[in-house]
Write a structure and sequence with these properties.
Order of helices and strands: HHHHHHHEHEHH
Radius of gyration: 21 Å
Distance between the termini: 30 Å
Strand content: under 5%
Number of domains: 1
Number of helices: 10
Largest sheet: 2 strands, antiparallel
Structural class: mainly alpha
Oligomer: single chain
Length: 292
């Protein structure tokens, strides 16, 4: 449940910040009559994202047991790739989001409301599709521990509240630290998803070493207990892990986390100031500011 909450919170806040930038810009240029098109686009993005989850579920349930394992493993590899790209991309280039969105908003305003709806649907929909894929795959990897309908929805709900408070400049919130910490935790989650993909491919016979056990927990260890659910949800930890699963987990986690944490602090600080100023552009000047 915790990893699903983390995914929902991180991805949801990114989407909320994008919506805040779009809304704040329309308020700033005094074109609030077009706000409804932004919300139409957001609604379309939400519907498409929910539809994507439904497609994944229908596809998985319609396959044979062997094909379902292969589908889950392949989707897990895709998720690890997308998630890794996302956290590095956000850490490196997020300080340019405000300028890019403002430029696209100017072009869309020249075309009309439908163009604004399309812009909002694409910008928010990208985050929504990523969230849907991450939550679905992580749920498969944790064997249903903390279903996305619980952890994911709670994370999304908290992100909406935080996004609104940031827009109103009602909280002191360090975005650069938030994205740094959650990015590092998501890399840990991705390592667990990769370990799950290795397990699925070993069961299919696509990878060797299923019987080469690296770790077996004693009989008292209960995967259904709170500690088992926590370790399973965050690390994909199992009572029995193969050597190849452990190698894949550490082989991905250590170099990826080192590279992520070694990225320049200056870029993160620019991310904080640029995104915060874009989201809160229309807030009252007397309201509390977002701290850096």
């Amino acid at each position: 449940m915790f990893s699903n909450f983390l995914i929902g919170l991180r991805e949801g806040l990114e989407a909320a910040l994008i919506v805040g930038i779009l809304v704040a810009y329309l308020v700033k240029v005094r074109r609030t009559e077009h706000l409804r098109w932004i919300w139409i686009g957001v609604g379309i993005a939400v519907v498409v994202s929910l539809g994507f989850v439904l497609v994944l579920d229908i596809t998985s349930n319609s396959l044979s047991d062997e094909a379902e394992e292969a589908f889950a493993g392949i989707m897990s590899l895709l998720t690890v790739g997308f998630l890794t790209w996302m956290v590095f991309w956000m850490r490196r280039t997020a300080h340019t989001i405000k300028g890019e969105l403002h430029g696209k908003m100017d072009a869309a305003l020249d075309v009309g409301g439908v163009a604004l709806a399309v812009l909002a649907a694409v910008a928010v929909g990208r985050e929504g599709l990523e969230t849907a894929l991450f939550l679905w795959t992580n749920d498969q990897a944790t064997s249903g521990t903390g279903h996305p309908a619980v952890g994911g929805v709670l994370g999304l709900a908290v992100s909406v509240v935080l996004g609104y408070l940031l827009y109103k400049r009602a909280v002191n919130f360090n975005l650069s630290t938030f994205f740094l910490v959650t990015g590092a935790l998501l890399i840990v989650v991705a390592a667990g998803v990769l370990s799950y993909a290795v397990h699925e491919f070993q069961e299919l016979g696509w990878l060797p070493g299923e019987d080469a056990v690296a770790l077996t927990m004693p009989s008292w260890y209960d995967e259904e207990a709170w500690y088992g659910s926590l370790l399973s949800g965050l690390f994909n930890f199992r009572a029995s892990l193969s050597v190849l699963q452990v190698v894949a987990w550490f082989g991905y986690l250590v170099p990826t986390l080192v590279l992520f944490l070694r990225q320049p602090r200056r870029g993160a600080e620019r991310t904080q100031s640029a995104v915060a100023s874009g989201v809160s552009a229309s807030a009252p000047a007397s309201a509390p500011t977002v701290s850096a």
